[in-house]
User: Which sequence fits this backbone?
């Protein structure tokens, strides 16, 4: 979180990056150089009413999706927005750009004049970048892609039955020690 705060302060308020995070300086200089108006740690919300998506406040009672964008730069003249998420992981091996799609959908709702969102997962430690571009015509595709997952989760929350979903995190990280897949029970 300290690194995120250092990036936010530098891009949003021109506060120098602390020496212990000096390795992110080249990245942050490029972020400052992006065209458009900058927003840091922007809280976004999407409401879903009768199948229609609408922008809403992060804390609205009818919020259906909420997220925080590390850096958003909106270039109205170029009809382009840049969504950046800083990552401190050791590598991008298991990178998942789904969150960029979710943030892009929120940006399209917030700024209807934007026709293109360029998303970036910036792994500042391993110096890896994952770039994805989104077009207005496919702005809600991410929700279609997640429909099955969201449906299963809704059923689980309503029924109180959460079926195990074994994955690489089971053995070392899952707090459910009585699960057969945990490996620590």
Assistant:
């Amino acid at each position: 979180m300290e690194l995120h705060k250092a990036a936010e302060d530098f891009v949003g308020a021109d506060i120098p990056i602390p020496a212990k995070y000096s390795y992110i300086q080249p990245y942050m200089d490029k972020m400052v150089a992006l065209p458009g108006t900058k927003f840091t740690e922007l809280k976004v919300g999407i409401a879903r009413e009768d199948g229609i998506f609408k922008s809403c406040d992060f804390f609205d009672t009818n919020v259906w999706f909420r997220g925080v964008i590390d850096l958003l730069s909106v270039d109205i003249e170029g009809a382009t927005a840049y969504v950046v998420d800083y990552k401190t992981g050791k590598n991008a091996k298991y990178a998942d750009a789904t969150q960029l799609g979710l943030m892009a959908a929120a940006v399209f709702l917030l700024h209807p004049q934007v026709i293109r969102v360029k998303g970036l997962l910036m792994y500042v430690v391993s110096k890896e970048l994952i770039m994805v571009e989104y077009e207005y015509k496919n702005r809600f595709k991410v929700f279609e892609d997640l429909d099955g997952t969201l449906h299963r989760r809704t059923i689980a929350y309503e029924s109180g039955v959460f079926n195990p979903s074994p994955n690489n995190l089971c053995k070392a990280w899952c707090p459910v020690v009585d699960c057969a897949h945990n490996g620590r029970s």
